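Page 42, continued from yesterday. The earlier attempt failed because a stray header line got pasted into the input along with the sequence. Redoing it now with the clean sequence only.
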Amino acid sequence: MAAPKRQRGFDLRALTTLIADANEDQPGPMLPWSLLDGLAELIPAEEVSICELDLVNQERELQQGVLEDEPRCLERGESTPGEYKSFWRYYDSFWQGLPPSRVGQVRSWTDRYPGRLLAEQPLYREAFQPCGVKYLLSVGLPAPTGRERNLLFWRHAGPDFSDREKDLLTLLRPHVAEIYAGAVRRRRGVLTARE
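This time it went through. Structure tokens are written below.
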């Protein structure tokens, strides 16, 4: 069922405001904080974050996020030794050779494992279910070879992510990729003519 015209108009205004604010904001560690704050309002979740993984060395490089109970969260590497042991053990088999969110794709866990199939997966059962995570939506962003960069939405309760929310992120994804690239340039002190 299509969203009512009033809802679609609100979504488009919210998206354009979000993009404009992020382009004006400080670059942040990975993305401007205003972008993550705005995304958390647009698509409610207990955590909205961007994470970069080193697939070769099986390490989390950096994760920047806004959490329901902590407005700003920045983590480098693993918080505790071996924290991601279960994650890396089952990572490849969970996605059966595919990264969780290839560049340009918006995907949820339940797209791949609908219904009870998700609870049967060792990665979910050992790494995420104990933390109370119920649903994940990921947006693949460009990253160098051997790395993966995803915008992540985590829900512990409530409904799974809707098609409307996935569509909004599909529209927003190229803008987030450009905002990320612009933030990198600004942190380095290299600006384009437009910037």
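Notes: The chain is about 40% helix and 20% strand.
Reminder to self: strip header lines before submitting.
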